[in-house]
Write a structure and sequence with these properties.
The protein is of the alpha+beta class. The chain is built from 28 helices and 26 strands. α2 packs antiparallel against α3.
């Protein structure tokens, strides 16, 4: 049996373990590990006896041995990942210690991230000066204020208010809690300015990682100074340092839709390219010296030079997980060359995957892991048995074009599964972008980074270098924008079922198989289901309602057989992130939704309308209903805008929509706040009723009850996130909901939902669902009155997900906590 299969089984074991809602118990793990070791020992004994007796295994015995080897490798991968996870999860912040002010001594252990309202950094905790509290060894800390200046490697004594890792959980969305676990960030919080002031204890801790991060911070500051005001300066900084925060959301959308996002950061391709260039140069220089050749062959010298170059570039990138993954992959390949193992390419690649998984068991959850190894595997598979091309430039150009074609086809199933889209312009875009970015822009940026650290006037050499690099990126962006004008530039596809994805992978492998494989064209047929498989839709007469987990804000998606309505767009987290682009759009992609019939923006408050611009800039929206003035800049990209007015009744397919608030009298009062003008919509579909209320205050609730004969509803969105200023007793009794959805942020500073309000709803027999506890929640109301509910945090749980409950202490009121900006301020991951 090819060892690659056993190595792949090890990786599969780790991946399967990470799909579990709970880790296996210590006893079960110990028994599994013992049985696995016993199986390995038994196999070794049987092989030794067979070798001494010159016996060869055949038939069922041989297949049984193969299957046993795969099973043992699978168990080893799962056990390794489980033990690693148990060890890391043991270092946690208790629920009872959330929201406490804790005095800490520690070191700033990362490149501080510049935010709109302050800075965020990783903090190595050296001492906990508040008794009775356990704080994890490494935490993510935000410091918010007008002039916060901190540097990597400084030792600080500060007061922090912490919480457990807790992010929004939505289908198709980013899993912040898994990302933090992989990076061993076991708590997050912010610096408290009140009480004992923060003190800088030491200017610099001279240890390896801290020194590298301080150097990176100095380099970033110098590059930012040189690139100030440049449109794509953030891209150049990302190519040098891996710091992607300065790349705008619009630019990321452009790069994603054209399939080149892997090029606009320190990617595996760039690390490999730098390593390859140094390897070629070192090999040529080594061959010129007879003395050097007597010490070691040129191939070994090239491998060592490649690894040193890759290691240096990864340090420059901050030694992040994607960079580590690439480095260890290259190190495995180089090690196989140095040791002259003579292994097959597939075995070397599988061994590299195992090494990466051993060091970082959560790497198998990253899209970059599968894209990197998938691309290399496709190239190895396609060139197997194929004769080498000639040395002419035409032959090399044909080979480069064929490799690009192979990678594009091979990654189609993965891109659909991971990103729910296929960029048809990606082959052309990458054919242009790869040489431009990898061979021109990145080397120019790296050379400029070297010179920018020199004293004047030598540092002025960077001016033409950075100008040329920026001009090339700007030109590339213009070409990419032009390519997106084609109607079929990018195709959005729903997330396929598992069996469709497996069939597509097999089809791509068949299509790209080496010469001699029969009927290779038939592989294209196996790809067809990926493009035509219909997404699940409500049956006739059904109503599906999804309350997305957007933190402290509101966003709901309502679906029937033929209509889609969105109520509110979620909050704006920061200048670079909002719920529209980070949560609502990814969810719609997983559902295969490209057109929205009606977008309702209840009112202007940012936690309800903060994602509207992102939705209107991408989606085909039939009409916008809102209480916001039609000429407001937020609605600049909206086509049809309709003012919400009580009494309006619209029928769309099987939906009946009634606007219950605001009245003309509300609009006539200029001193009314935005909450009082919240657009209240009643939706009827068959026997099901849905009442969407925005931030309606108690006074307007009483007015609504007085002028509406029947407010009873199946599902109610709690007004103002369950605030005590809303959900008045008459309103709760008049609506008498079966379900109440509360969209609120975890441990939000407002204390939503208020315990008094919760008690009111429970008194009328309503079941209250909180998105901060349940994640995104979908209700499916059938025509016959039956109901189904799925909660992402509970029904789609993974073992690392935070599971708060009714006993979780509320967040103490504190204005500083609101400046934390939501969970998306923790990071802006693009891997």
């Amino acid at each position: 049996m090819n060892p690659a299969w056993a190595l792949a089984a090890f990786v599969a074991g780790a991946w399967i373990l990470h799909q579990q809602a709970a880790l296996p118990g210590t006893a079960l793990l110990s028994i599994t590990a013992a049985l696995t070791c016993a199986a390995l020992l038994l196999r070794a004994v049987l092989q030794a006896r067979a070798a001494r007796a010159s016996v060869r295994w055949h038939g069922s015995t041989l297949w049984l041995m193969y299957f046993g080897a795969l099973l043992v490798a699978f168990a080893l991968g799962a056990c390794h990942a489980a033990w690693y996870a148990k060890w890391r999860l043991a270092d946690e912040l208790a629920f009872a210690d959330e929201g406490r002010d804790v005095r800490l001594l520690g070191v700033i252990a990362s490149l501080p991230a510049q935010l709109a309202r302050g800075t965020r950094f990783e903090f190595d905790v050296e001492a906990i000066e508040t008794p009775g509290v356990h704080v994890p060894a490494r935490i993510s800390v935000g410091w918010f204020g007008p002039s916060i200046q901190v540097r990597a490697g400084e030792r600080w004594r500060l007061t922090a208010r912490l919480k457990r890792p807790h992010g929004t959980l939505n289908p198709g969305g980013f899993d912040l809690e898994g990302w933090m676990l992989e990076r061993n960030l076991r708590a997050t919080g912010y610096v408290r300015e009140s009480g004992a002031p923060a003190q800088r204890v030491d200017e610099m801790i001279w240890e390896g990682g801290y020194v590298v991060d301080r150097a990176r911070q100095i380099l970033r500051a110098k590059l930012q100074q040189r690139l100030q005001g440049e449109r794509y300066g953030g891209v150049l900084i990302a190519l040098v340092l891996g710091d992607q925060r300065a790349i705008s959301e619009a630019d990321w959308l452009l790069f994603n839709r054209t399939g080149i996002s892997h090029l606009v950061s320190i990617s595996g391709l760039h690390i490999t390219m730098i390593a390859g260039l140094l390897a070629v140069a070192a090999g040529k220089l080594w061959r010129r010296s007879a003395r050097a050749l007597s010490l070691a062959p040129a191939q070994s010298a090239a491998a060592v030079a490649a690894m040193l170059a890759a290691w240096a570039y990864c340090l420059l990138a901050g030694w992040g997980v994607p960079a580590q993954r690439t480095f260890f992959m290259l190190a495995t390949v180089a090690g196989a060359m140095l040791l002259r193992l003579g292994t097959r390419p597939a075995t070397t690649l599988a061994l590299a995957a195992v090494v990466v998984t051993l060091i970082d068991p959560w790497a198998v959850l990253a899209p970059g892991f599968w894209l990197s190894f998938g691309a290399v595997a496709a190239i190895f598979f396609s060139v197997h048995g194929r004769p080498a091309n000639g040395p002419t430039w035409r032959a090399k150009l044909r080979e480069a074009a064929r490799v690009q074609w192979v990678v594009t086809i091979a990654l189609v199933p993965l891109t659909v599964v991971l990103f729910q889209q296929v960029s048809l312009v990606s082959p052309l875009a990458n054919a242009i972008a790869i040489p431009v970015v990898s061979l021109l822009v990145t080397p120019l940026s790296l050379v400029a980074a070297c010179f920018v650290m020199l004293p004047e006037p030598l540092a002025t050499i960077v001016v033409p270098l950075l100008a040329l690099a920026h001009w090339l990126i700007a030109l590339l962006a213009e070409l990419l924008q032009w390519s997106l004008q084609w109607r079929v530039a990018s195709i959005a596809l729903p997330a396929p079922p598992a069996w469709v994805a497996i069939v597509a992978v097999l089809g791509a492998a068949w299509l790209l198989s080496p010469p001699g494989w029969p009927m290779r064209w038939a592989g294209a047929v196996w790809l067809v289901p990926l493009f035509v498989w219909p997404t699940e839709r409500p049956a006739a007469g059904e109503l599906w309602v999804t309350a997305l987990d957007v933190g402290q804000g509101s966003a709901l998606v309502i679906e029937t057989r033929g209509e889609v309505l969105i109520y509110d767009s979620g909050p704006r987290y920061s200048p670079q992130a909002d719920a529209g682009s980070r949560i609502v759009l990814p969810y719609l992609r997983t559902r295969g939704i490209e057109r929205v019939d009606i977008l309702v923006l209840s009112h202007l408050d940012s936690d309800h309308s903060g994602g509207a611009a992102s939705l209107l800039g991408v989606l085909d929206v039939g009409a916008v209903w809102t209480s916001i003035e039609p000429w407001h800049p937020l609605l600049a990209n909206a086509g049809s805008v309709q003012r919400c007015r009580a009494g309006t009744i619209t029928r769309s397919g099987s939906l009946e929509l009634r606007v219950l608030h605001p009245t003309d009298a509300e609009y006539a009062l200029p001193d009314r706040n935005t909450n009082a003008r919240s657009c209240v919509i009643e939706i009827r579909a068959g026997a099901s009723r849905l009442l969407l209320t925005g931030d309606l205050p108690a006074a307007q609730e009483l007015d609504l009850v007085a002028r509406t004969s029947d407010l009873r509803t199946t599902l109610l969105t709690a007004p103002h996130h369950g605030s005590r200023s809303s959900s008045s007793d008459p309103f709760v009794r008049a609506t008498a909901p079966t379900w109440v959805a509360v969209q609120a942020g975890y441990r939000n500073r407002f204390g939503h939902p208020d315990p008094v309000v919760v008690a009111r709803y429970r008194a009328v027999g309503a079941e209250l669902i909180r998105t901060d506890f349940a994640g995104a929640t979908q209700w499916r109301f059938a025509r016959d009155g039956s109901q189904f509910m799925r909660r992402q945090r509970i029904d789609g749980a993974r073992y690392w997900h935070n599971q708060p409950g009714p006993g979780t202490p509320p967040m103490e009121p504190d204005n500083a906590s609101q400046r934390e900006g939501g969970d998306f301020e923790v990071s802006s991951p693009r891997d």
